[in-house]
């Protein structure tokens, strides 16, 4: 239902220029960023542009390999857990956007609209021998997965540079979406997932994270760099 709603909304944005009396132009852009590789299309004029976009993140995405493992460990588990854990970060496979760019000063613009993500972001780590969770040490191997559960359809705002409908060049988007409903879910698998007390230990780690960073689970950043062709 939400995906159908967003598709209708994107179609509406695409048709909007036909009823806008201001100067009309159109453009297309190809980007890479935190949502994956994708394409944007813009319709409008020099000050107001209607934009739609889509991104696809491969299962093994080169940008996720540059996220510091120590940072994820510190956020999820604090300083008590060994800092040599290595993570695989899996992004939502598909992201769709529909919104408006308001150009306020030259290439500088404000953006806003709706974003749809097909899945939740996941961080997965493999435990070779032991791990300390919830003040307990589990001396078994396995995996620990942290899933950031958010609403699939969320509003977003941001700033950027470059008018998608004007000439040839680069464009930049920096923004954030907000999910009123969010949660962090930690699970374990393998021998670790069958260890007595593991669920309680993971829940304690989750509660400790939420006590200091619950606001962070409601946000999702977007940064992308693209090449545009305006007409």
Could you explain the architecture of this structure?
With 231 residues, the chain is an alpha+beta fold. The protein has one domain (2-15, 23-230): Porin (Beta Barrel), CATH 2.40.160. The protein is built from three helices and 14 strands. It has helices spanning 2-15, 69-77, 198-213, and strands spanning 25-33, 36-44, 48-56, 87-90, 94-105, 108-117, 121-127, 131-133, 136-138, 142-150, 153-161, 168-178, 182-189, 219-230. Strand 11 and strand 12 (168-178) form a beta hairpin. The longest helix has 16 residues, at 198-213. It is elongated and about 65 Å long.
Shape annotation? elongated
> Beta-strand percentage?
over 45%
Q: How many individual β-strands? A: 14
CATH architecture: Beta Barrel
Low-pLDDT stretches are 13-22
> Mind describing the biggest β-sheet?
8 strands, antiparallel, barrel
Q: Radius of gyration over alpha carbons?
A: 21 Å
Helical residue percent? 10-25%
Descriptive key words:
alpha+beta, 231 residues, eight-stranded antiparallel β-barrel, four-stranded antiparallel β-sheet
Task: Summarize the model shown.
The chain is 17% helix and 50% strand.
Give the SSE map:
Blueprint: H1 2-15, E1 25-33, E2 36-44, E3 48-56, H2 69-77, E4 87-90, E5 94-105, E6 108-117, E7 121-127, E8 131-133, E9 136-138, E10 142-150, E11 153-161, E12 168-178, E13 182-189, H3 198-213, E14 219-230
């Amino acid at each position: 239902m939400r995906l159908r709603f967003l598709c209708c909304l994107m179609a509406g944005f695409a048709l909007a220029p036909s009823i806008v009396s201001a100067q009309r132009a159109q453009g297309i852009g190809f980007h890479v960023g935190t949502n994956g590789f994708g394409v944007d299309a813009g319709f409008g004029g020099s000050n107001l542009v209607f934009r739609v976009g889509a991104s696809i993140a491969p299962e093994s995405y080169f940008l996720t390999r540059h996220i510091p493992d120590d940072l994820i460990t510190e956020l999820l588990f604090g300083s008590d857990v060994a800092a040599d854990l290595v993570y695989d970060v899996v992004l939502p496979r598909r992201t769709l956007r529909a919104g408006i760019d308001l150009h306020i000063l030259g290439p500088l613009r404000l953006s806003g609209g709706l974003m749809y993500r097909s899945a939740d972001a996941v961080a997965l780590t493999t435990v070779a021998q032991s791990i300390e969770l919830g003040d307990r040490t589990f001396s078994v191997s396995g995996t620990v997965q942290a899933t950031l559960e958010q609403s699939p359809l969320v509003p977003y705002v941001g700033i950027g540079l470059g008018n998608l409908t004007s000439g040839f060049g680069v464009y930049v988007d920096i923004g954030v979406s907000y999910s009123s409903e969010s949660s962090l879910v930690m699970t374990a698998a393998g021998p670790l997932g069958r260890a007595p007390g593991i669920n309680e230990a993971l829940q304690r780690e989750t509660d400790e994270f939420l006590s200091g960073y619950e606001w962070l689970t409601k946000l999702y950043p977007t940064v992308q760099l693209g090449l545009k062709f305006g007409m």
